[in-house]
Design brief:
mainly alpha; 308 residues
Length: 308
């Protein structure tokens, strides 16, 4: 990885990305539009912003040479990305920013579970223990929300379903990301996800255009801030820093979102959210660090065997 060509140190770009994605939940809370509309326009507006920068000739060659399996994986990745936005954005209508955001930190847990069943990837005892601890933290959050209302618990469930959906999106796309530039992959799955939500809105008779000017600005800002200056920036940084570093940085999103929710929405954090959130965040950090150490060992062994 070439870190010398960056105009600024990597932590500066990581901080920009974390702040950008942290604004996602705030923008969702500010809008009165349905979650399916927010998700649809967030994805489709991002697609429009990508258009001037797409390598069209490379895309044509890449898609022409793609196998049926790769097309299916691309479709699955895009469909579940759309479902992620549908469930996750809807969760904010029922629960707090703190609960919805902390529960999304469980994504590595679901990815590991899915990788075990789909790709037979084994996890060490340390990894399993950290996963169990993370799950216990989410249970603490949910149990605290039971005391708030059944609606809050329903919002927690939607957040978890959204996290499961984005985990499937990640698993389906992990091989594709190695075979195509990140902008082409992102463009394709954003387009598919946006079309999935478009069909959902048509089938459920959700209005596509009757929204206030404030909501249209929020649709655009969701595409521009958390998608372009957040997720697209993280994808670009993969050329300069390792994926684990970015994963660790993204764990700052719930913290940033909770701070912004306090100042911009006046949302207070409960004791169960604080305790459960700390347990989830610490356990996931331990898990990611351990996975990074395991990966370094594997790469060192491979280099040693190549030399010998």
């Amino acid at each position: 990885m070439n870190k010398s060509t960056l105009p600024l140190p990597p932590p500066v770009f990581l901080l920009i990305g974390v702040v950008a994605v942290s604004f996602s939940s705030i923008l969702i809370k500010w809008s009165e539009a349905p979650a399916s509309i927010l998700g649809m326009y967030r994805l489709l507006f991002t697609v429009l912003l990508f258009l001037p920068f797409l390598p069209w000739r490379e895309m044509k060659i890449l898609f022409k040479n793609s196998t049926l399996k790769e097309w299916l994986m691309l479709a699955v990745s895009g469909v579940f990305l759309g479902l992620h936005f549908l469930f996750w954005m809807e969760s904010f209508s029922h629960t707090t920013v703190a609960s919805a955001m902390i529960l999304t930190a469980l994504e590595p847990v679901f990815v590991v579970i899915g990788a075990y069943f789909l790709f037979k990837e084994k996890t060490s005892k340390v990894g399993i223990i950290s996963i169990l601890i993370a799950v216990s933290g989410s249970v603490i959050i949910a149990s605290g929300d039971i005391g708030v209302s059944k609606t809050a618990l329903y919002g927690d469930l939607l957040s978890v379903l959204g996290t499961v959906a984005v985990s499937v999106h990640m698993l389906a796309g992990q091989e594709l990301c190695r075979k195509m530039p990140s902008i082409i992959y992102s463009f394709a799955v954003f387009l598919i996800g946006g079309l999935v939500l478009f069909v959902y809105n048509i089938c459920t008779n959700v209005s596509l255009i009757q929204y206030d000017i404030k909501d249209w600005w929020i649709f655009l800002l969701l595409a521009l801030i958390p998608n372009i200056f957040g997720h697209a920036l993280f994808n670009w940084l993969l050329k300069y820093v390792d994926a684990t570093t970015i994963s660790m940085a993204i764990l700052g999103e719930p913290i940033g979102a909770i701070i912004l929710a306090y100042f911009l929405l006046g949302e207070m954090t409960t004791v169960s959210q604080l305790v459960g959130g700390m347990i989830v965040m610490i356990s996931v950090m331990i898990f990611l660090k351990y996975k990074a150490a395991e990966l370094e060992k594997v790469m060192a062994l491979q280099e040693k065997s190549n030399i010998s």
